[in-house]
Amino acid sequence: MTASVTAARPPSDITKRSLPATLVIHALLIAASLLMLYPLLWMVSASVRPENEIFSSTSLIPSSVDFSSYVRGWTGLDISFGRFFWNSLVISLLVVAGNVIACSLTAFAFARLRFAGRNFWFAIMLGTLMIPYHVTLIPQYVLFLDLGWVNTILPLVVPKFLASDAFFIFLMVQFFRGIPRELDEAAMMDGCSAWRIYWKIMLPLSLPVLATAAIFSFIWTWDDFFGPLIYLNDMNTYTIQLGLRTFVDSTSASDWGGLFAMSTLTLVPVFFFFLFFQRLLIEGIATTGMKR
Amino acid sequence: MTNAMRTSAGAVTVERYQGVRADGRLRRLWNANAPGYLFLLPWLIGFFGLTLGPALISLYLSFTDFDMLRAPGWVGAANYVRIATADPKFASAMSVTLTYVVLSVPFKLTFALLVALALNRGLRGLPIYRAIFYLPSLLGGSVAIAVLWRQLFASDGLVNAALSHFGIVGPSWISHPSYSIYTLVALSVWQFGSPMIIFLAGLRQIPQDMYEAASLDGASKFRQFYKITLPLLTPVIFFNAVVQTIDAFKAFTPAFIISGGTGGPINSTLFYTLYLYQEAFGNFRMGYASALAWILVVIIAIFTAFSFLTSRYWVHYDD
Question: Which of A54, A78, A86, A87 has the alpha carbon at shortest distance from A261?
Fold first, then answer.
């Protein structure tokens, strides 16, 4: 299933095309790429510019490099951005663990175990993919409030350990089904328990899909604004997205340098994940149509 | 139960025999199904506790005046009646959201398809282009991008600086009610990367020999696109359209950040989800917000059903 995505084109396709046509296409694509990247590059460049220079030019190259915006931004609120980074990191890593563990258990049951009612529950699970979260939002909020979980990370993390991201279950079911049946049938003949098959056979063979789920979990949680906005009201518990938003509100137009510096910092982890796992991410999108 | 039957002293042989048989059947039932349900347990707890239960409660709340302070009081269909007849903000939020959906989805998909077609030619450097075009999709949901966008379209922002090179004095896009929604549409179109990658994957599935045969028959490139590529790609176009539309209905963060949470100026960026959020967590009209949520579900369901019903007239599957 992934092979079709990465397979190289037959060479005949390249040789058929004339050189000028190829050059024109490259020129257009390069222009489009620059247009796409320009806002991002401009923001990074603005973050290292001296304050008085930020809006004076549309150029990407600063006349001098000055990191004072980062220092000002980092300490611009009552609580330093280090706290927000730490909170985001803790939540994101726990969500990754929750999604990988709970979704793989669920997907294993749906993909490889036989039990009464399996098809029924599988259909229900697919149905939950279509329910917008707004429907469960308010009762969930009341529930977590009653449990005393508001202003803790629990409402953001615990649901993931209960496999609330049906999307990843679906992704893993698809992958597990591609693994040869003979493997676990043979193991079952030898008296292997379901748990051992899951742990010793299925998980090691499923590292690509587990990694894809883990990386997307991390990035989406890191970028999530809505969940923290609802559940975290105490600034000590803020994630990086809430911190940045507070910074926007508190400085409004006065400290653009600090704002762009902190904005850039919040994008850095996502950017590095993208850089290192680009191939996995793109295959994940191409084979499943993930969207965020 | 079976244990009790078995150990009950002095049981007649027949009873004991039946007990053992029942026990064996149960054991077999247990052995056959327990592993599956044990693996499913976390999901089952989550499904009942966090999805089905809350969904039913939310349906009930939508018929109440629940405000978090007092117990919910039944008001019948009053919330729905008010939404339908006496809530100008609902009408405005719905129209803003529909405008956003109708503008952003077709533009986004067109860009995605055009770029995918350009990339699907065995070009050198494909992975680099693909990565560059995909990056905005990945960063898109974050606050930083919304902040950046707000600056780009500010009155002294980059877009106007660029326009001034051509002697055009641009308005303050963000704070002008006639333009603000288009800045959000532009942000959404900028993130055409993930549908583009799905299009690329779809284009790879089209057998090359079809084009070769068409070339031999003298079909022009345009005709080949129209007669081969487009029909064979309709399942992917359909998938992208449905996914992107549902997603557009749910857009929240950019509108929230760009308008500072207000949906302004003059409600011109008051997206449906933003209005729902304001009602629930700003005004604590939880019952009313629940009704809003259910209306969103119904709209998305109607849209999806409509897409699937019409798809048989334009989506071509191999079989």
Answer: A54
pLDDT tens figures, B120-175: 887 888 889 999 999 999 998 899 999 999 888 988 888 888 888 888 888 888 88
Alpha carbon dihedral A37, A43, A47, A50, in 10-degree steps, equals 100
Chain A segment 221-280 residues within 8 A of B by beta carbon are: 222-226, 229-230, 241, 244-245, 248-249, 256, 259-260, 262-264, 266-267, 270-271, 274, 278
Percent of chain B with pLDDT over 90: 61
B282 touches chain A (CB under 8 A): no
In chain B, what residues touch A139 (CB-CB under 8 Å)? 53-55, 57-58, 61
Best mean pLDDT range from A275-284, B33-42, B116-125: B33-42
Answer for the pair A72, A258: CB distance below 8 angstroms, yes or no.
yes
Q: How far is A102 from chain B (nearest CA, A)?
A: 7
So what's the pLDDT on residue B172? 85
- Closest chain A C-alpha to B287 CA, distance in angstroms: 9
Give A236's contacts (C-beta < 8 A, 6+ positions apart): A79, A83
Asked if omega into B265 is within 30° of 0 (cis), the reply is yes
Q: Which residues of B84-96 are buried (b: 16+ CB within 10 A; e: fewer)?
A: eeebeebebbbeb
- What angle (nearest 5°) sits at the alpha carbon of residue A138, between those of residues B41 and B244? 80
ipTM exceeding the 0.95 mark: no
Q: From CA B239, how far away is CA B308, in angstroms rounded?
A: 10
A42 in contact with B at a CB cutoff of 8 Å?
yes
pTM flag (> 0.95): no
As separate numbers, helices (DSSP H) first and strands (DSSP E) second, chain B gives 16, 0
Torsion of CA B129, B132, B133, B136, to 10 degrees: 180
Residue B250: partners with Cβ closer than 8 Å, 6 or more residues away: A132, A134, B273
